[in-house]
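Q: My collaborator sent me two sequences in one message, no labels, and asked for predicted structures for both. Can we handle them in order? The first one she listed is below.
A: Yes, handling them in the order given. First sequence, followed by its structure tokens:
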Amino acid sequence: MSQPIPTGPGQHQVTGRKYTFAPRMAKTPKSFIREILKVTEDPRIISFAGGLPSPALIDVDNIAAAAASVLAKDGQVALQYSTTEGYRPLRQFIADRYKKRLGLEVSPDEILITNGSQQCLDLIGKVFIGTGDHVAMERPGYLGAIQAFSLFEPIFHPVILHEDGPDPVQLAHTIRNYPVRFFYGIPNSQNPSGITYSAERRMEIAGILEKSETLFIEDDAYGELNFNGKSLPSLRQYIPDQTIITGSFSKILAPGMRMGWVVAPLPIMEQLVVAKQASDLHSNYLSQRIAFEYLQTQNIDTHIEKIRASYCHQRDVMLSCMAEFFPDTVLFTRPQGGMFIWVTLPESVSSMAVFDAAIKENVAVLPGSPFYIDGGGNNTLRINFSNSTEEKIRTGIERLASVIKKQCNQ
């Protein structure tokens, strides 16, 4: 039997022990973003690598006041166990907001409060994906979704993104030839590309799905962050029985509260609730009550407009700096909203090499290859503009441009 080897006060390491893990763990990638964020903890580094909302736009004082009010008025109840579905007045608020923002008729019974929208993806995976089942995703696709769904060992089918949304021919071919359980997409300010589906493309995608048994998982984490303030229709408007929507308060309130939700037809909701009960019984009830109190006492539309204006300005500054400093051979998207710009380098330039060299210049970006479920993207970058000041954006992009130019000339 192996003996513990002391490694310090109160610490021991056991050698020679073998652990047997479920085969699914070998097929589930680590979060590349979380690993990179460890590298960027140095305060000297200007980081465009994460997807963090601006801390300056988190309404700390009014959230604190909402928390104090909830605890003073109803603390014992707010600190108790609660229902799996979530605080009904909060679900009603979300339902009413869908009517106001998108013209959608949603019942609070079709809404489940989750621990961030990431848990929505986990629950959807549990309910719909068996080993070897077929799932379609955008190419490039959201890394968090790739990781969440990979745990259930599906067969992924990438659908390439164009400037106006997913390729309809490729999607139709995939659905025609495989029993695809669902197509996962982010129609508004897609992560990582920043692309927003056009109204025409949304209708086209809905028409393709309507002729099949395939569901559409509509991740709407960035839907409120459209800089022109005009919302394009949800696919639920066209195919209500085949659309599941996921949403989040992380981008418009505070990510640390871990508050998201999923909207689904009632037969699907029943299964999601069972999966939720098996996972954690219910989401943080205190956070739900604080969020609702905040939403009752503050004008969320005014707050969102402040976020939009700030992010729009930061996007414009970053795009201007890219146009000024980047070589002409570097392409980049011009997002209508959200938090990200997608950069395509010349094919001969490795984004990992750019990442490594940029870190030495105290600027961090996110290489694009982990966003590709079928490989590729080795010359792409995702760059975040929401969590940097104007000064940091200009300094960081100028440093990054210098690194890219050197890599282009090698």
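Q: And the one she listed second?
A: Here it is, processed independently of the first:
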Amino acid sequence: MTQNVLITGGSGFIGKHLTDVLLEAGFSVSILSRATKENLPVITYYKWDLNKNFIDENAVLNADYIIHLAGEGIVEKRWSKKRKKAIVESRVKPIDLIFSVLEKHNKKLEAFVSASGIGIYGAITSHKICTEDMTPSDDFLGTTCQKWESAVDKIGALGIRTVKIRTGIVLGKNEGFLKKLVPSFKSGFGAILGLGKQYLPWIHIDDLCRIYLKSIEDQELEGPYNACITDNTTNGRFSKTLAKQFDYAIWLPKIPPFFLKLVLGEMSEVILTGQRASSEKIQKTGFEFQFTDLEKTLINCLK
């Protein structure tokens, strides 16, 4: 019998790619949506509304696995007090809703897999390579990820295997992070942000989706795993490598930190800081990254 994977955030950049990977692997997919959508042969849509604390319980009851990707974009809007609250709640509320259904019906999933972020280690720039056993930071990014993962722990307390994928910058074909950068770089106006020394942990969308697939197929996986390439990519190196794909060297001056802070406020810390994270734990499970070279990865994403 075909097993079903329920995805929150299934219509987003990662969700769309992951749906294709799961279908190719032989799973059926269910997606939670705020809009009414017509079902497809291998994709079923269920309604939910976080503002009304509503979820179609059948979405959870018919699932063998759940992958939680939903969440407001970290850098979509300036961080007001209201925006910060929305960022946290959009990640935690879905888990609370799903937990209530699981507990009410004593439903046992094969596994619950949730996105999380490298930001749990804090908005820092240092030579330290962060590992999964490090103490989370107490800044906004760190506490957001802590609350996110703590909500997952409630599901784990029900006796369900849980996995947390701490993700870096996701690179895909003109989507996600690159979608914001390509227009200016393609026009010859790419620039280094801040000092350019801040690390930029990245991962190709294909590798990330393969990690999610392994997380549901490999019953040995449990707990947090960093999902990014452990290299020395900085914002400066990334910017220069991206500009090279359009056949020019960066000529504009670096955009100074004070300007980014003026324009973006507290949110500028996402751009002006960055940390390396070890991928050793996920690799020890037998997972092998297909994209480890930044330039080759960008060529793949831009072709």
